[in-house]
Amino acid sequence: MTYRTIVVGTDGSGSAQRAVEQAVELAAADQARLVIVTAFARTDATPDERVPADVRWMTTDPNEAERHAREGRRLAAEQGLSDVVVQALEGEPADELLEAADTFSADLIVVGSVGLTGGSRFLLGSVASSVLHHAPCDVLVVHTHGSQHRAPSQ
């Protein structure tokens, strides 16, 4: 199957990085548009102390969200992709991925099999699960848990 528009989410985690790499490979193979989405939640409230400090920025800092999205654009450029859209959006990650898929008429969403873990998991929930249940198109869940091997290129 050939894809015309691929949406991928990133949050700076290793799993998300692997999903971006896979999405870039697929987009390059199909010469598809790649939409890279990262989400953040702006908050004026006192940060929840249950969320580890080293990952708290991943859910609240728009500058870091934009940086992760731009890193995806850099990876895409290295593969010769020119039709790349980068979005850093305020909102829940799964919701923003689904919205981007709808807005850009995506025919594939790529997500990592695991996202942030530990104390932040309660905050983010399972992005892959939510996307799988509500996606308007195909979903590729890139297996990233416990293995650092790369899927073969097509």
What does this structure look like?
The protein starts with a strand and ends in a 12-residue tail after the last strand. α4 packs parallel to α6. The protein has helices at residues 14-30, 53-60, 62-78, 93-103, 121-124, 127-134; strands spanning 5-9, 33-40, 84-90, 108-112, 138-142. The model is unreliable at 51-59, 116-125 and 147-154 (pLDDT under 50). It contains 6 helices and 5 strands; from the N terminus they run βαβααβαβααβ. The chain has a single domain (5-142), classed as 3-Layer(aba) Sandwich (Rossmann fold), CATH 3.40.50.620. It is 42% helix and 19% strand. The chain has 154 residues and is α/β, with parallel strands linked by helices.
Shape: globular
Q: Assign the CATH class.
A: Alpha Beta
Instruction: Give the termini distance in whole angstroms.
Output: 12 Å
Unreliable stretches: 51-59, 116-125, 147-154
Share of residues in strands: 15-25%
Reading the helices and strands in chain order gives: EHEHHEHEHHE
What's the quick description here?
By secondary structure, the protein is α/β, with parallel strands linked by helices.
Keywords, separated by commas or semicolons:
single chain, 154 residues, alpha/beta, Rossmann fold, 6 helices, 5 strands
Secondary structure elements and pairings:
Layout: E1 5-9, H1 14-30, E2 33-40, H2 53-60, H3 62-78, E3 84-90, H4 93-103, E4 108-112, H5 121-124, H6 127-134, E5 138-142
Parallel strand pairs: 1-2, 1-4, 2-3, 4-5
